Amino acid sequence: MLSVFYHRFVVGVRAVRIPPPFAHANVGYEFFCCRLKAFFSTSGGSGECCWLGNVHTASTMATLAATKEIFRSADAVCFDVDSTVIKEEGIDELAKFCGVGDAVTEMTRKAMGGSMTFKTALMERLAIIRCSREQVNKLITDHPPQLTPGVKELVKSLQQRGVKVFLVSGGFRCIVEHVASQLGIPLDHVYANRLKFYFNGEYAGFDETQPTAESGGKGRVISLLKELYGLEKVVMIGDGATDLEACPPASAFIGFGGNVVRPQVKERSSWYVTSFGELLKELEKI
Asked: Does the first or last residue of the chain, that is N or C, have fewer Cβ atoms within 10 Å of its Cβ?
């Protein structure tokens, strides 16, 4: 039996109902809804996507089987870094190292849960930390980031199959590059935020022009990668809200809860894993 849906957008004081163009294809309609919602939200309007009959939401990107199929045949896989590729949240570790850990950890939780914009959270956390170049370098030397078990094997397996691997992070490039080197990922496959310092090494802010400095930035990076490399199937893997919202343009999203479980992300993920071993097993089916 076909489901019946409607899509209503409010632009100013006008309510616009858009008839279902894909009444026979659930995933296609969800994609349609999400794209329209993104369009209207950037145009000053608001929208809601409702599905009558079989209760569903536009946030479900694909079925479990479809997501697994996309992963097995992906051209590229983009990994979040903090709490995904590595066990820690880099900015939290930096805050602890600088003596302001508690205040920053709570703000990170809100940012990753989606209760505040990423850029606002990043700006406010860095304003508290105000780390120097020397402190950042010492953190990497004394407390290098710890890889999540299984990620090195997964990256190697993907690369052996000719799949391009990228690190797309809201963390700091100086830390993420260190992680990339451990995993054998080229540095030009790293997209992350850049800290800025004065000549004397004191904190001077961060590069706000980087796409990863804003909510929706990871999606913009994926769109860029598709255009730059001619990619068709790109999978995003991560633990947070900024990873989830990268699909679309990512072809599929895999939620990761091996280090921390974020309820909103888990609920909205068609495929949610708690170890990279689950992904390795899926690749073995090829």
From this structure: N
**pLDDT, tens digit (0-9, with 9 covering 90-100), for 195-216:** 888 999 888 888 888 888 777 8
- Which two structure tokens, joined as six digits, stand for 212? 């990863």
Burial of 228 (0-12, 13-18, 19+ CB in 10 A): exposed
CB-based burial of residue 192 (10 Å sphere; 0-12 exposed, 13-18 middle, 19+ buried)? Answer: buried
Give the integer Cα–Cα distance in Å for 70 and 255.
14
**C-alpha to C-alpha distance for 176 and 252, rounded to whole angstroms:** 23
* Residue positions annotated with a catalytic role: 80, 82
**Cα 210-211-216 angle, rounded to 5 deg:** 155
Distance CA 192, CA 264 (A): 24
* H or E element at residue 202: none
How many Cβ atoms are within 10 Å of 180's Cβ, its own excluded?
A: 24
Q: Cα–Cα distance between 68 and 125 in angstroms, integer?
A: 36
* C-alpha span between 245 and 42 (Å, rounded): 14
Q: What is the pTM of this model?
A: 0.71
